[in-house]
Amino acid sequence: MGNTVSLTMDGKAIEASEDQTILEAARENGIYIPTLCQYAGTTNVGACRVCLVEVEKARSLVASCCMPVSSGMVIRTDTKAVRDAQRMIVEFLWASGDHNCLACESNGACELQDLVYWLGIEKPRFPIEPPGYAVEKTNTMISRDLNKCILCGRCVRACNEIQVNEVLDFARRGYRAKVGPAFDADYINSECYFCGECVDACPVGAITFAQARFSGRPWELKKTRTTCTYCGVGCQMDINTHNGKIVKVTGNRNYGLPNQGSLCVKGKFAIDFVQHPDRLKTPLIRKNGILTEATWDEAYDLIARNFKTIKETHGPDSIAGLASARCTNEENYLFQKFMRAAIGTNNVDHCARL
Ligand code: FES
Q1: Quick check: CB of 42 below 6 Å from ligand 1?
Q2: 207 has which bridge partners?
Q3: CA-to-CA distance for 323 and 348, rounded, in angstroms?
Q4: Is the CB of 49 under 6 A from ligand 1?
């Protein structure tokens, strides 16, 4: 925490730490400044310029996400010059992409859409000329429509600074600039790990969950916080359901540790098994060579009988147990207890050690 400085924002005397940006000081004091490229946990790059504010004696409007506060600053966030500049930027963004909200997966959860509405823009003054890229549908997890990309770079920084996968970057310049993996490859043909961090970071509908397409509008989805079952880290996540079915899994940065909203490919995308028609819901016992549905009591009786026979015939150390990282600590504790106390062996291990 740096030294405290005094400044004025929208006529209000405020105090801020000298290592804060104008945007951070504004948020702390309940003053709204719109943003698009700013993304917590990554470098402020000042790419979109919608966070412009007026600073007295500055030569031009400044990007509040990048400008540190200083003592005696007089800042105005809602002047005509600020709104005119924001409007023009948003109109340019709208006009340079295919922002067709009717069919967009992010309709209702799009920061550009929110900004258009907040600024009261009916229509851009400029001709709408999307670049005409093909929508990338070459994998089953992430869909990319670069016609909707606003080049904010949040996906690039999320990939490089949060997940440190270093798969995404900018290519080309000016009107032809685009974001993607090296050599303009599709995700599936790149080094992408499919962690999905870019999907969560995208403020518009350019990078979306392929599995969730047409499965429910953002406002129809019910989010339920849960703990990922794939390993022992205990990552927190939101299961998004619609009509009782899982549509997608999203990270939630508000949950903090242990994963700060980030997930791995399994936690984020490997959800099909939950509702898969082939999922085993009852035990199967092989009878005359054929797997036959049985009750849990029948299954447990069979297991207990066979354990007992093996133990009596070959001794307890002829049995070994391998626990799973998908179980909770409590389940794994009970498992080793069962092996030691009930079976009588220390032959117990865990798949995470392999
Ligand atoms: Fe500040 Fe984009 S949010 S420049």
Answers
A1: no
A2: 144
A3: 8
A4: yes
347, two tokens: 């032959």
Distance 280 CA to ligand 1 centre (A): 50
Domains of the chain: 4-78 (3.10.20.740), 220-277 (2.20.25.90), 284-353 (no CATH)
* Whether pTM exceeds 0.85: yes
Q: What is the mean pLDDT of each run of 10 residues along the chain (354 residues)?
A: 92 97 98 98 96 97 97 98 98 96 96 98 95 95 97 98 97 92 96 96 97 95 94 91 96 95 95 92 95 96 96 97 86 95 95 67
**Under the phi-then-psi rule, with left for phi > 0, alpha for psi from -120 to 50, and beta for the rest, what region is 248?**
beta
Q: Which residues of the chain form beta strands (DSSP E)?
A: 4-9, 12-17, 52-55, 62-63, 74-76, 142-144, 169-171, 178-180, 207-209, 222-227, 236-242, 245-250, 284-287, 290-293, 321-323, 348-350
Tell me the residue type at 117: Y
Ligand 1 centroid, distance to 260 Cα (angstroms): 22
User: Quick one: tokens of 231?
Assistant: 């390993």
Q: Name the residue of 27, 39, 44, 157 whose CB sits within 8 Å of the most ligand 1 atoms, as the mutation to test its pocket.
A: 44
